[in-house]
Amino acid sequence: MTIWLIARGAGLAALVLLTVATALGALVSGGGPARPGGRVIAQYAHRVVASLGLAVLGLHLTMILADSFAHVGWVGALVPFTSQYRPLWVGLGSLAAYTFLLVAATGFARGRMAGSAGGAAVWRTVHGAAYAGWAMALLHGLRSGTDSSVGWVRVLYLSCLLVVLGSVATRAVVGMPSARRAVPAGVQR
């Protein structure tokens, strides 16, 4: 029973951490905080929270695999849509994990990729896949999580959704990078 409790708690904690990382990423990519050094601090926080989210996601996966009653198994966890337990929704969780790992790998390689316009474009595209990974993770938890019918868990899922939507909306309204470039030289905002 302890393994199952840790698996459930780690899954919810991973969702919260990856929600914060996704929201911070959206806000930082739109220009970030205007205070001197604010963007650097926000980017650092984004990286730290994302790393913690991946570590807790690893704990979630480890505990699911260690639990013989979960009926997921190695193949079901690693090969999307092959789980005995809710294959579609567990499969989305697997795809979300792979997406987050790919995004993290490009995040680590950003400095090398930013040296060229093509590399920066690839980084931006792959890193933008975090939104899809986050959405798959949310659906995975909502549809395969055994606590999804519990009131506070539903509030948690809704809160995560609102945080990410709010950060993306703020980014769109406050400033996309291309919108900042469109301001003529010498014009102050």
Report on the architecture of this protein.
This protein is mainly α. The protein has one domain. It contains nine helices and no strands. It is globular and about 50 Å long. Residues 179-184 have low confidence and may be disordered.
Tell me the layout of helices and strands:
Blueprint: H1 2-29, H2 38-66, H3 73-78, H4 87-108, H5 110-113, H6 117-128, H7 130-144, H8 151-174, H9 177-181
Helix pairs in contact: 1-2, 1-7, 1-8, 2-4, 4-6, 4-7
Radius of gyration: 18 Å
Which outline best applies? globular
Runs with pLDDT <50, length 5+? 179-184
Percentage beta strand: under 5%
Number of discrete domains: 1
Sheet with the most strands, sense and barrel status: none
Briefly summarize what is shown.
The chain has nine helices and no strands.
Main traits of this protein?
globular; mainly alpha; 189 residues; single chain
